[in-house]
Design brief:
By secondary structure, the protein is an alpha/beta fold. It has one domain (about 25-455): Glycosidases (TIM Barrel), CATH 3.20.20. The protein has helices at about 1-20, 35-40, 55-60, 75-90, 100-105, 115-130, 145-150, 155-175, 185-195, 205-230, 255-275, 285-290, 295-300, 340-350, 380-400, 440-450, and strands spanning about 20-25, 30-35, 95-100, 135-140, 180-185, 235-240, 245-250, 305-310, 315, 360, 405-410, 430, 435-440, 455. The strands form 4 sheets. An 8-stranded parallel β-barrel has the order 2-3-4-5-6-8-10-11, surrounded by 4 helices. It has a two-stranded antiparallel ribbon with strand order 1-14. Strands 7-9 form a two-stranded parallel sheet. The longest helix has 25 residues, at about 205-230. The protein is globular and about 80 Å long. It binds beta-D-fucopyranose.
């Protein structure tokens, strides 16, 4: 009797604590998931689509793990109505996806492809039909191969072509799409695509990569101007950056702290300074080589929002760092799980760069999932990862730094670039042999959280 009474009491205390310790997100908080065209669409050569650098790269033996390609991917080109219905069932009010430039303009300049343009009309209309706000990215890495053939992002002319394409998209979809992102993670395009060659187009040229980074920012600025001119009604123009905060290995060590500070100023500053202040960090301009007088003015356009993609921190030390660290855990990508760093990062950007309107546009984890005998996917590690980061977003808001939305990466398992299909990031499982979608436990938790619009901070 006494025991029963005590456990009853305990239950009441736990519930009260949960209630007290819960965080309610703002009523207009964006709950979403993200995908990108090449990673999910498939239909790589259908309905007049042009070849992209990722088509060329994945078709080149040895570039992608197991020879995987995005030729079919999640077959989203044909299955988008079901996928968006699923997003609705997951209680998501927002969806971040990208337009494939070569699908709508096969050569990246000149003629547009009516069937490609129609496809995104349908995707957008389907979002709206399901009560989902579309967040459109114009460039998530699939440059038309025809433009790579004239030098790709190393050629300043490509910036002009991008601005024309961007304006066309706004003209066409701007009546229904408010939120526009020019680029997804320019650092990845520059570094992985042109410096270490791990991503398309697979170039390895340090100087070229520095020019590419600059040209991407320039293209962002030129596109922002062109998009605002083309818009029949007001649109929000933003950019999405992957900025991992650099932390010192030993917070008590002055050398380590200096290294972390320098890394922040150089690495994150290389993108944030030109975008928000119209300047480059000291010494940076020299690396670019081809900096024209007005470039920084063009880059420094008003940003209606800034999207942050976050997966892990960067760790620095004067002494060698040996991963895995004894008390840390890692995802299957080998990325250390450090949810607290997300709050540090968001707070720092907000305070140092003029209080931008911030969204977490990507966050998630790759773990190897197993499908139970009863068809269930118990992805506890991914659920814990997402929950821990959502809590950090809540704590960030609570501390006075407004965050306007959180997009889990990804709606579903998909083509993870050079890792092919070997890495699963979805909150929905995809059986690539049958294209069957199954909501994982992480997806269920996310749906419930989005629906309640709150998270428990215990
Ligand atoms: C980001 C990319 C996204 C996905 C995740 C895991 O860098 O933007 O497409 O690959 O990483």
């Amino acid at each position: 009797m006494f025991h029963r009474f005590m456990s009853y009491l305990q239950e009441i205390v736990i519930r009260a604590m949960r209630h007290y310790n819960r965080f309610d997100f703002p009523s207009d908080f964006a709950w979403g998931t993200g995908t990108s065209a090449y990673q999910v669409e498939g239909a790589w050569d259908k309905d007049g689509k042009g070849e992209s650098i990722w088509d060329r790269f994945s078709h080149t033996p040895g570039k992608v793990k197991d020879g995987d390609t995005g030729d079919f991917a999640c077959d989203h080109y044909y299955r988008y109505p079901d996928d968006l219905l699923l997003a609705k069932k997951l209680n998501l009010n927002s969806y971040r996806f990208s337009i494939s430039w070569p699908r709508v303009q096969p050569d990246g300049r000149g003629e547009f492809n009516p069937k490609g343009l129609d496809f995104y009309d349908r995707v957008i209309d389907e979002c709206l039909k399901n009560g989902i706000t579309p967040f459109v990215t114009l460039y998530h890495w699939d440059l038309p191969q025809a433009l790579e053939d004239i030098g790709g992002w190393g050629n300043r002319d490509v910036c002009k072509y991008f601005a024309v394409y961007a304006a066309k998209c706004v003209e066409r979809y701007g009546d229904r799409v408010k939120f526009w992102t020019t680029f997804n993670e320019p650092w990845c395009t520059s570094f992985l695509g042109y410096e270490n060659g791990y991503h398309a187009p697979g170039k390895k040229d340090v100087q070229l990569a520095a020019r590419v980074a600059h040209n991407l920012l320039l293209a962002h600025g030129m596109a922002a101007i062109a998009m605002r001119t083309a818009a029949a009604k007001p649109i929000d123009v933003g950019i999405v950056l992957n900025l991992s905060i650099t932390e010192p290995m030993n917070a008590g060590d002055a050398n380590d702290c200096n290294l972390a500070e320098t890394a922040w100023r150089r690495e994150c500053g290389a993108y944030l300074d030109p975008l928000f202040r119209g300047t480059y960090p000291a010494d940076h301009a020299a690396k670019i080589g081809d900096l024209h007088d007005d470039d920084l003015k063009v880059i420094n356009q008003k940003l209606d929002f800034l999207g942050i993609n976050f997966y892990s921190r960067n760790l620095v030390s004067k002494s060698e760092i040996k991963h895995p660290l004894p008390n840390s855990s890692y995802t299957d990508m080998g990325w250390e799980v450090t949810p607290w760093s997300l709050r540090t990062l968001l707070t720092r950007i907000y305070n140092e760069y003029d209080k931008p309107k911030l969204y977490v546009t990507e966050n998630g984890a790759s773990y190897d999932d197993t499908v139970d005998a009863d068809g269930r996917i118990v992805d506890t590690k991914r659920l814990d990862y997402i929950r821990a980061h959502v809590k950090e977003v809540a704590l960030t808001i609570k501390s006075g730094v407004p965050i306007h939305g959180y997009f889990a990466w990804s709606l579903m398992d998909n083509f993870e670039w050079a890792e092919g299909y070997s890495r699963r990031f979805g909150i929905v499982h995809v059986d690539f042999a049958t294209q069957k979608r199954t909501v994982k436990d992480s997806g269920r938790w996310f749906a419930e959280t989005a629906n309640r619009n709150r998270v428990c901070l215990n």
